């Protein structure tokens, strides 16, 4: 079989294969789904184009979809999020076409998006809604044949809901990010650990005793805040939502506007899904040597053009660190070009948490195909029973047992007649 691909180096395949197998040991739920998919072939003949971070965990998802009979193509969902050895292993050992190179230019990135759409997918699997956007803008001819799409990220769900609100979303989408077994675990524990991992690898600066600002207090941001506090940092949270701000206060964090927080910060990390969360007013008051990073999906959370306009010099003292020297002599250190720092300078989320996220992706693709023509156009959550199935499988794999309701308890919960 001849596989089309555009990767860095096919000779990295053996190294990638070993790392994929290492990750797979921490992904028992996905492994069980893959075993069932191999028996039942529920995705037989389905063309899937996936735009995801090309990591060891994603490789195991691709293997699962292929085991289910899908014809899969994988492209990167961020120019810096590809693990080149993993891309090589998928091509060499799994015969899955991959178009992804770490550090690829924006031009190459979008050529890879086009390659994914040239696969004529019936289902797209997105991490940021770039494939759905590409279908709407460039390949509307694909729409009549589309079963639907799945979406992994908060940022992508925001974009998709905006499409639905404008009436331009043409098919059903499963918001995998809205599953409890995704956002409560992947976003909080995965983003929390991997973001701090990326920052530490990029800087090797001790966090204990530093002032660490986290923009936002959604599931991703609260995970970052919790992990930074666990490493001894003095954490400040900024928010625009009064309920989330109140929650952050009740969780023991200081809360204040970004401009005030930026003047105290040694580190600032964004994870909001919005643009220009760190802007000129924050740059103006930052301390010399402040480190800024982004863990949101797109690199627009930090206003990098504004930072460049304020600067007279740009240096790179370390890999993944761009140091901007301002006119007054202050240095501001931007990590990973403002892209996802957990993937730019580290390896992304641990496989144990991605096990649940990608179980959701696999079951969502099966659910969409089984319900083809039955789901209305719009953004949907995966049914709760599938969410609970994933949680139950994860607990079983961890050797943890829980209680079950008795018949009497079931009857009580479904009755209004019995009281005090």
TrEMBL record:
<feature type="binding site">
    <location>
        <position position="152"/>
    </location>
    <ligand>
        <name>substrate</name>
    </ligand>
</feature>
<feature type="binding site">
    <location>
        <position position="186"/>
    </location>
    <ligand>
        <name>substrate</name>
    </ligand>
</feature>
<keyword id="KW-0963">Cytoplasm</keyword>
<dbReference type="Pfam" id="PF00670">
    <property type="entry name" value="AdoHcyase_NAD"/>
</dbReference>
<dbReference type="GO" id="GO:0005829">
    <property type="term" value="C:cytosol"/>
</dbReference>
<protein>
    <recommendedName>
        <fullName>Adenosylhomocysteinase</fullName>
        <ecNumber>3.13.2.1</ecNumber>
    </recommendedName>
</protein>
<comment type="function">
    <text>May play a key role in the regulation of the intracellular concentration of adenosylhomocysteine.</text>
</comment>
<feature type="binding site">
    <location>
        <begin position="218"/>
        <end position="223"/>
    </location>
    <ligand>
        <name>NAD(+)</name>
    </ligand>
</feature>
<feature type="binding site">
    <location>
        <position position="55"/>
    </location>
    <ligand>
        <name>substrate</name>
    </ligand>
</feature>
<dbReference type="GO" id="GO:0004013">
    <property type="term" value="F:adenosylhomocysteinase activity"/>
</dbReference>
<feature type="binding site">
    <location>
        <position position="349"/>
    </location>
    <ligand>
        <name>NAD(+)</name>
    </ligand>
</feature>
<feature type="binding site">
    <location>
        <position position="182"/>
    </location>
    <ligand>
        <name>substrate</name>
    </ligand>
</feature>
<comment type="similarity">
    <text>Belongs to the adenosylhomocysteinase family.</text>
</comment>
<feature type="binding site">
    <location>
        <position position="274"/>
    </location>
    <ligand>
        <name>NAD(+)</name>
    </ligand>
</feature>
<feature type="domain" description="S-adenosyl-L-homocysteine hydrolase NAD binding">
    <location>
        <begin position="187"/>
        <end position="348"/>
    </location>
</feature>
<keyword id="KW-0554">One-carbon metabolism</keyword>
<dbReference type="Pfam" id="PF05221">
    <property type="entry name" value="AdoHcyase"/>
</dbReference>
<feature type="binding site">
    <location>
        <position position="127"/>
    </location>
    <ligand>
        <name>substrate</name>
    </ligand>
</feature>
<feature type="binding site">
    <location>
        <begin position="295"/>
        <end position="297"/>
    </location>
    <ligand>
        <name>NAD(+)</name>
    </ligand>
</feature>
<dbReference type="InterPro" id="IPR015878">
    <property type="entry name" value="Ado_hCys_hydrolase_NAD-bd"/>
</dbReference>
<dbReference type="InterPro" id="IPR020082">
    <property type="entry name" value="S-Ado-L-homoCys_hydrolase_CS"/>
</dbReference>
<dbReference type="InterPro" id="IPR042172">
    <property type="entry name" value="Adenosylhomocyst_ase-like_sf"/>
</dbReference>
<keyword id="KW-0378">Hydrolase</keyword>
<dbReference type="GO" id="GO:0071269">
    <property type="term" value="P:L-homocysteine biosynthetic process"/>
</dbReference>
<feature type="binding site">
    <location>
        <position position="342"/>
    </location>
    <ligand>
        <name>NAD(+)</name>
    </ligand>
</feature>
<feature type="binding site">
    <location>
        <position position="187"/>
    </location>
    <ligand>
        <name>NAD(+)</name>
    </ligand>
</feature>
<keyword id="KW-0520">NAD</keyword>
<dbReference type="InterPro" id="IPR036291">
    <property type="entry name" value="NAD(P)-bd_dom_sf"/>
</dbReference>
<dbReference type="GO" id="GO:0006730">
    <property type="term" value="P:one-carbon metabolic process"/>
</dbReference>
<feature type="binding site">
    <location>
        <position position="239"/>
    </location>
    <ligand>
        <name>NAD(+)</name>
    </ligand>
</feature>
<feature type="binding site">
    <location>
        <begin position="153"/>
        <end position="155"/>
    </location>
    <ligand>
        <name>NAD(+)</name>
    </ligand>
</feature>
<comment type="pathway">
    <text>Amino-acid biosynthesis; L-homocysteine biosynthesis; L-homocysteine from S-adenosyl-L-homocysteine: step 1/1.</text>
</comment>
<dbReference type="GO" id="GO:0033353">
    <property type="term" value="P:S-adenosylmethionine cycle"/>
</dbReference>
<dbReference type="InterPro" id="IPR000043">
    <property type="entry name" value="Adenosylhomocysteinase-like"/>
</dbReference>
